[in-house]
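re: ur question from yesterday

yeah so i grabbed the chain u mentioned. its 176 aa long if i counted rite. heres the sequnce exactly as i have it in my notes:
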Amino acid sequence: MKFKSLLDVIDSRKSIRSYKSDSIEEDKLSYILNAFRKAPSAKNIQPWKLIIIKDEKKKNDLAIACKNQTFIAEAPLIIVACANEDEAYSTLGGYMSSYAVDTALALEHLILAATEKGLGTCWIGAFKEKLVKDLLNIPEKTRVVALTPVGYPAEEGRNRTRKPLSEIICYDRYIE
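ran it thru and got these C-alpha cells back, copy pasting raw so excuse formatting
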C-alpha cells in the first residue's frame, strides 16, 4: 500500500491480533528500527533499548508474561522496549522521569514505520514486568515500557473510534 501522507499512515494503523508466519525482510526491519532510533527524547538522552525476540520458546513465554495474550507469539518477532530510568532526564515537567514518555514516543515511531511498510503491530501494555525481566535477563534498574509483536497481518484489524477534536482541544486555558 502506498501512502500519500503521514496522516494516511496514522489512519491505517490498527492493532493486529493475528499474524502470518512470513519472516520480515531485513531491510524492513532495519527501516523500523531506525525509525525508533531517530525519535526525540528529553535532552536527547535516548535512555532506551530494544530487545528483539525471534526464539519460539521465548515468544511463547512472553505471551504468558503478557497476561496470556497468545496471539503475540504468532508474529515472527516481538519487540520489547525498555528504558534505563537512571539515564533518563529526571525532572520532566519538574516532577517526573522522562523514560516512559521517551520510550513511548520512540516505539510509536517504530509502529508507524511498520504500518508504512505493510507490517502489523499491537501495543502491549498488559504484562508482568518481573516475568518479562526474568525471561530476558533485564537488569533491575531497567524498566520494561511496552512490547509489540511485528509481522504481516493475518487479519485486517478492528476500526477504532477517536474522540472529536472538540472534546480534546482547548485554547488559552484548560476547560473541562
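noticed a couple things. The chain has six helices and four strands. also The mean pLDDT is 96.
anyway ttyl
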